[in-house]
Design a protein that fits this description.
By secondary structure, the chain is of the alpha+beta class. The chain has two domains: 8-89 and 188-199, Orthogonal Bundle (Ribosomal Protein S4 Delta 41, Chain A, domain 1); 94-179, Structural Genomics Hypothetical 15.5 Kd Protein In mrcA-pckA Intergenic Region, Chain A, CATH 3.10.290.10. 41% of the residues lie in helices and 8% in strands. It contains nine helices and five strands. It has helices spanning 8-15, 24-28, 46-61, 65-77, 82-91, 94-100, 107-115, 149-155, 192-199; strands spanning 119-121, 124-125, 138-141, 166-169, 174-177. A five-stranded antiparallel sheet has the order 2-1-3-5-4, covered by helices on one side. β1 (119-121) and β2 form a beta hairpin. The radius of gyration is 18 Å and the shape is globular.
Length: 201
């Protein structure tokens, strides 16, 4: 399965946000990468700003270009505001749900748990990170995986309690999708309208 494997800190520095997770490199060098990173940036074109927003969304959710374009195409076919629907579809990804429930500390770690068959959807093993969750469906941890230190450590933070659109049963290690989140409950710093404008060109 294709995924971004390049330097994470460099991406965070490009957008001046820890979008790939906190790192010592980003904390020490919170300016753009490259020899001119500290100098004042020249004014960006409208297209460059829109493209950067799309790239940021791709890196945040760990989606490559073709998959992101396919997700946007799905969003345009659904009822509702296209930008909000796009983010809802990205949030509905199984790897993102595992991350939101607190089973994994990052989306990358969540993707690994899914691929390595530690995660159940409605009681069955699903190893496809892009699987699209629907309201009413459940996400759980396989019985033999519940003792994994990485999972128990992540769950101790209690990630699912932050989101009203998810339920979490800590005893059974099973979460339920109540509904897809409205834009106000998606915490990512993304201007989805810029992405819509980019694809509308």
């Amino acid at each position: 399965m294709a995924r971004y494997t390049g330097p994470k800190a460099r991406i965070s520095r490009r957008f001046n946000e820890p979008i790939m997770g906190e790192s010592k490199a980003f904390q020490k060098k919170n300016y753009a990468p490259g020899q001119h990173g500290k100098t004042k940036k020249r004014k960006q074109s409208e297209y460059a700003i829109q493209l950067a927003e799309k790239q940021k969304a791709k890196y945040i959710y760990g989606v490559l270009e073709r998959q992101f374009a396919h997700t946007f195409d799905r969003a345009t076919r659904k009822k509702g505001v296209t930008g909000e629907v796009l983010l809802q579809l990205l949030e509905a990804r199984l790897d993102n749900m595992v991350y939101r429930l607190g089973i994994a500390p990052t989306r990358r770690a969540a993707r690994q748990l899914v691929v390595h068959r530690h995660i159940l959807v409605n009681g069955d093993v699903v190893n496809i990170p892009s699987y699209s969750m629907k309201p009413g469906e459940t996400v759980g941890v396989r019985e033999k995986s519940k003792s994994l230190e990485s999972i128990s450590t992540s769950l101790s933070i209690g990630g699912a309690k932050k989101y009203h659109w998810l339920e979490w049963d800590g005893t059974e290690m099973v979460g339920k999708v109540i509904n897809l989140p409205p834009r106000t409950e998606i915490p990512e710093n993304i201007n989805e309208q810029l992405i819509v404008e980019l694809y509308s060109k």
